Amino acid sequence: MVPYIEDGVELQKAAAEAGKKNVFLIGDSLRMGYCETVKTDLSDVANVFYPAENCRNSQYIITCLRTWSTLCDPKTVDLVHFNCGHWDAAHWNGAPVSLTPLPVYGENLRVLVWQLRHIFPNAAVTFATSTPMSPNAVQGVNPRSNEELRAYNETAREALRDLNVPIDDLFSVVEPWDASHFADYCHLTPEAFAELGHVVSRFLRGRL
Predict the structure, then answer these.
(1) How many angstroms separate the CA atoms of 14 and 182, rounded?
(2) Dihedrals φ, ψ of 194, to 5°?
């Protein structure tokens, strides 16, 4: 059974009465770090839904999107915000190549936008870039570099440009942050995740 953050039907009934919008967040552990902040920040204007699990890489989102959409009535979703890239760029178990080659990553994003617009037919679709590694990153068994992440983010921009998908540039937001904002090689501290959540909330609020 798909885990519900709240009872979607009841939330949407209340939203309709209160004139609120519905927002759907999709993404990896970065999204997991800021989603509660976004939900709280936007509580006056929107219900915020998201999968309980880590959405991992672009291929995984493609295969799981239909299941996650049952968290609510997808026809009532007004705005989707999604990200993926860290898992795609990573060299899993120290492999010499990234999990998802850049051309495949770009095509996967285009497929995802098509799927999102098909499954959430009344929603505007937005994309968030992957955030950088810690300045003091000690690479683990699944390494990736900021140079690679920049390349994946640029590939995303190119792939989505003619699809008119607004980009929430979280890489640029986090890039100036020092190592004190990071809990490990790529994940943020709770305080930094909350700060990033406020950035995402402002981006979304401007599009609701």
Answers:
(1) 38
(2) -65, -40
Task: Compute the Cα dihedral for 51, 54, 57, 60 and give only its sign.
Answer: negative
Say how far apart CA 79 and CA 83 lie, in whole Å: 14
Of 49, 46, 43, the closest CA to residue 82 belongs to: 49
SS3 content of the chain, % helix, strand, coil (to 5): 50, 10, 40
Relative orientation angle of helices 146-161 and 102-119, to the nearest 10 degrees: 50
CA distances from 190 to 18, 54, 81, 112, 161 (A): 31, 17, 21, 29, 32
The closest of 26, 25, 179, 155 to 101, measured between CA atoms, is 155
Residue 84 has pLDDT above 50, yes or no: yes
Query: In the prediction, which pLDDT does 17 show?
Result: 54
| Beta strand 21-26 pairing with 46-49 | parallel
Phi, psi of 152 (to 5 degrees): -70, -40
Cα–Cα distance measured from residue 141 to residue 5, given in angstroms and rounded to the nearest whole number:
32
Distance CA 194, CA 118 (A): 31
pLDDT of residue 4: 42
Q: What is the sign, positive or negative, of the torsion defined by CA atoms of 169, 170, 171, 173?
A: positive
Could you tell me the pTM of the whole model?
A: 0.93
Which pLDDT score, from 0 to 100, does residue 49 have?
Answer: 98
CA separation, residue 192 to residues 11, 87, 198 (Å): 29, 21, 10
